[in-house]
Amino acid sequence: MAAAIQPKKGRPKAVINPDSCTGCEVCVAVCPVDCIDKLPGPEHPTMNSVCVIDQPRCIGCFLCEKICPWDAITMVPPQEAPATEAGTTAEGGGRRGSPESEARGTI
Questions:
Q1: CA-based nearest residue to 56, from 28, 38, 36
Q2: Strand 36-39 relative to strand 50-53, pairing
Q3: Whole-model pTM above 0.85?
Q4: In 3D, which of 79, 13, 78, 8 has the Cα closest to residue 52?
Q5: Residue ranges per structural domain of the chain
Q6: What's 13-104's CATH class?
Q7: Contact indicator for 91, 41 with CB cutoff of 8 Å
Q8: 51 in Cβ contact with 23 (< 8 Å)
């Protein structure tokens, strides 16, 4: 049995800008540890969707940043990466102006 890939200390973490992400899922396809998920849009599940990263599982491999056609992913030092749970964006809310982000005050 192969050992599970573990994050290395001090490795950068991927952060997705929800305003640039189109939800195309290219990053989901290349992630070796399956730490990227797609969230449905707030009003219609197939529109305005955005991808999110489960930060504790990210190993800082740079594949998602390199492949993103919209330059929506950046790598940041681990101390600057937001401590997010699966299902939340790096900015702590949904897209700007969405009911979800307005409720959280992150417009």
A1: 36
A2: antiparallel
A3: no
A4: 13
A5: 13-104
A6: alpha beta
A7: no
A8: yes
Q: Specify whether the CB–CB gap between 96 and 85 falls below 8 A.
A: no
* Predicted confidence (pLDDT) per residue in 19-31, tens digit: 999 999 999 999 9
Q: What sections of 2-107 are H helices per DSSP?
A: 26-30, 63-67, 99-104
The helix/strand/coil state of 44 is coil
Contact 42, 93 (CB under 8 A): no
Distance CA 27, CA 60 (A): 13
Strand-strand pairing, 50-53 and 73-76: unpaired
Q: What was the pLDDT predicted at 77? A: 93
CA distance 29 to 16: 15
d(CA 106, CA 74): 20
Q: What is the pLDDT of residues 47-102, one digit of tens each?
A: 889 999 999 999 999 999 999 999 999 999 988 878 754 444 444 444 444 444 33
